[in-house]
Amino acid sequence: MKKKSTSQSAFFNLRVLIAAVFCITGIAVALFAMGAFSSAFAQAKGARNNQAAPGTQTPDVVRMVGPVRLDQDLRKLPYLAPKEEFEERRLMRHPFPLAGSDAPAGSGASGLAYVQKLLKNVWRPAPTMPGPLLTFEGIGDTCGCQPSDSEGDVGPNHYIEAINLTFKIFDKSGNTLSGPTTYNSFFSGLTGTPCTSANDGDPYVLYDVAADRWLISDFAFPSFPGASFWQCIAVSQTNNPVSGGWFLYAVQVDPANPTYLGDYPKFALWNSGGSPAQNAYFLTMNLFSNNTTFNGVRAYALDRASMLAGGPAHAIGFTLSATDVGASYSFVAATAARAGDPPPAGRNEMVLAIDSPSTGGVTLTQVHARSFHVDFATPANSVFGLGPTHQPNAEITVNGFVDAFTNTTSDLVPQQGTSTKLDTLGDKIMTPVVYQNHGGTESLWADQTVMENYPNGPTAVRWYQFDVTGGNFPATALQQQSWDNTIDGLWRWMPSIAVDQSGNTVIGYSTSNTTIFPSIRYAGRLAADPPSNLAQGEAIMFAGVSRFNGNRWGDYTRTEVDPSDGMSFWHINQYAQNGDWHTRIGKFNFQGVGGSPTPTPTPTATPIATATPTATATATATATATPTATATATPTATPTPAATPAAPRALKATNVTASSFTTNWRSVTGATGYRLDVATDSSFVNYVPGYQDLDVGNTTSHNVTGLQARTIYYYRVRAYNGNGTSPNSNVVQVRTPRH
Asked: pTM higher than 0.70, yes or no?
């Protein structure tokens, strides 16, 4: 073919560019018009928010094995080798080959998509997302297996990471406190179950903020296919996961169907109180009887109050058949009160899912939403979804998306230096689903991986905010976006979303393409940013080191808010080094400079059962009591001058009106007064007149007046005494209502 001259090519590209602008404008106008009509239609479709009546369904009531006390310091546990691992085949709603000939070789943008890419690259704003405050190395490939199942959570003083066969406990500077500990060592007391020696991974770690406790879990089974499948669960006795002891439990996946493996188990915490108390650890998992036969979904509510007390516990479960769930699987329940207010009294748990069709390239427009009402006193009154087949309480209409797989494979993501592609896991809502109650406005936040320009890619991160105020699922999303950084050629996948106490949002995820190694990045938005946009852009948490010599990538990641300050985010993900997988843990926030304040929180006590724990397996030896020493009088010490006070903890505003609100914070030991800032931006550049460094005296609240209606404000406080002034507190966002 004859090569075009430079001038001809430039003229042609200019014409294409101009034509594309008109074309895009026309399409946008058409889509807007369609949206105006579809919105009204969606309201009717999403209106099924009613809950099935108590007593109309038949739940299973399963007695959990345990509790078994583990009173030993984890650093002194006898080592029990993990179960021998094997190359695990990913279990999917509809089975596909592990790799396919139609997997794309690259981003493959062409024609109009190419022109759009050029335009968006020109218009892309400079990112303002701050870089990480710290990152540190997690557990490496100790199992000789893939995927890593990189998983973890953060507490006031610890970070716990869990991978396929071991877990490790760090302090918040990245220093190892214990581990790696094998699950076989950890759960060895659960005799009579596979938890003693056949733990197989798919772990989950959860810091229970309200109780100031920890939960660690994985699944166990001797063989697959087989007839003995269990979930092994540990709840810490104290807030010290290293030496404070644990209560161990186990629950069979589905006693009525013992050949069902509970794959991809995911936990959530919900405690809204009420009568009956909606207080449970919720567990959802996919059911498979062999590598290619999907049998449905299992949903459990575990008696959290009794488990925290170390008492006998029951689980209330429902099995939804493959027919019941249609094309969906991988249900994810919401976790409440991580940052923000708890749910209103008696609010039911909420569970989300999307479809995974039998063929690739299907445009989907719905998120399935179900309510789970639990009653541990009268289990027969528990209900999940609608009717005997547990259909969704509502169908939420969202912008069209395509699951990230083709007719033959989900190994789609290219990487530098190899033709080996990575698994997207792009057919499910990812964990966690975040519930937040912000001043009475209730929201669910969720994300997934989607495919753009099917089948060429790249993949993008789709995220949502759903307004569920009043416990009602909406007809449409309040916010939604497919985040591709304006089509910059990178593949983004394996996301995990988190929302801080002010409503600021961060999503951590993996990135790769043919020009970079698989890396860890995150993007975010402030609550005041324009809707449906990660307007703060993207930052790199950890750049890739090498290509990965395999397909199974991570299986999941995790982003969580630090309970110490309510505004710092922690993310765990996978990268590759010398062709093998490693894990990396990072911390970041929107402040961007220095460390975040980390006062130890005062957790709200959770009502717990008073039952005395009864061991059902191997008893732990009782320690010999140490005699109490006779006290020796100590001379009175010379008083030491008080130090500069610590940063206070700002609390939610109260008495919010159209023109005023009351700021609140916790008192700080040694403080003789406090200084208050109020601004209209979270960076505190635009102060409200009269509220910059305002000395409010030695109090823990102050009424702010003279404000505008329907406006977002931010406040922070500092404590002071004769020795100096503390760092800033966390930032609290307040929205004034209309008159």
From this structure: yes
